[in-house]
């Protein structure tokens, strides 16, 4: 196995089992590994440190897999990690309540670059590293052995594939092409998912628990669901007896699917207003019209793709939340989220405090939101924690 020598002084993160080694931390490579090969990382004195995937096209040149020298990184190793991850999701998948979740979450499940989402009997996969790409035949085989899915579809259209020098691809990996509409159930609510055409891998299952928490306040309330996508917060609020829900998203396809989903659940269409528009524009329009709500949900896309974008993103989050606060009745609730990994909870609270000052409002944080158990945070990889939110009472 080809050896990669770590620069002296760069050992700490590796010893703490952080799975990334940046190219700048590498002293030299003893040989010519192909991208995606498993290599052995050694320290400056030649002692074993870890095994990992190599890629000279990526800023993260090594993605570490195993810290025990005696363990062989073979097909069995990958099958074992897949099986561990799948077994860990058993508690989420309850008959008739929820049959969609993330089965494998990349580094957090010890499989750097592999994401697998389950949609009823179908699987959507993202392959984001050359190392995982090489192991896909055995990973697909293991998923078939464990779950016998109707289809496995590769939804690897993420920009991170380009960082590894991989082409974007959308192909059937096993079984048939997934149908245009796959019906799933989450929190007892039915959704149509378009795996091939939808955003991300089709659905944002990371908000499953947070939708339930917000809905628990919605009975009899006038709700505004901003960045609604296909209606996660809208449908949970309707199920809890909201008086009305207004859903705003810029994607016409998402809004059309949301309307389908309202019908699919036999909810009262008269209670739902959908607006296919830019949220920032629409919130200003509500303000001009003097429209107020009891609950405002703000679940925007990732504003800060990296730490360097955090300042600009913080201003955008502040402005969005300021507008949201101004549209609430006295004592109303703002459920606000950030899925930017670069934004931590402390900074997010600070952003909300600025927004409150600018809006001339008083804000209490009454609950905190995080990502659910099928998006685990590995103790040695804090970067895996990305979703956070605050439930605010606004006066
Ligand atoms: N709350 C949703 C997930 C939101 S994902 C759920 O529970 O499923 C973010 C959404 O924001 C996407 O649907 C995207 O189409 C939408 N979006 C992105 N930028 C937007 C903008 N400027 N105005 C309105 N919607 C936007």
Q: What can you see in these coordinates?
A:
Keywords: Cytoplasm, Methyltransferase, RNA-binding, rRNA processing, S-adenosyl-L-methionine, Transferase. It is found in: Cytoplasm. Its main location: cytoplasm. Belongs to the methyltransferase superfamily. RlmI family. It comes from Mucilaginibacter xinganensis. The protein is of the alpha/beta class. It folds into 3 domains: about 5-65, PUA domain (Archaeosine Trna-guanine Transglycosylase, Chain: A, domain 4, Roll); about 75-180, 2-Layer Sandwich (Transcription Regulator spoIIAA), CATH 3.30.750; about 205-395, Rossmann fold (3-Layer(aba) Sandwich), CATH 3.40.50. It is about 30% helix and about 30% strand. It has 10 helices and 20 strands. It has helices at about 10-15, 75-90, 130-145, 160-165, 210-215, 230-240, 250-265, 280-290, 310-325, 345-360; strands spanning about 5, 20, 25-30, 40, 50-55, 60-65, 100-105, 115-120, 120-125, 150-155, 170-175, 180-185, 190-195, 220-225, 245-250, 270-275, 295-300, 330-340, 365-370, 390-395. The strands form 4 sheets. It has a 7-stranded mixed beta sheet, with helices on both faces. The protein has a 6-stranded mixed beta sheet with strand order 2-6-5-4-1-3. A hairpin with a 5-residue loop joins β4 (about 40) and β5 (about 50-55). α8 (about 280-290) runs parallel beside α9. The chain is globular, with a radius of gyration of 23 Å. The structure holds S-adenosyl-L-homocysteine (SAH).
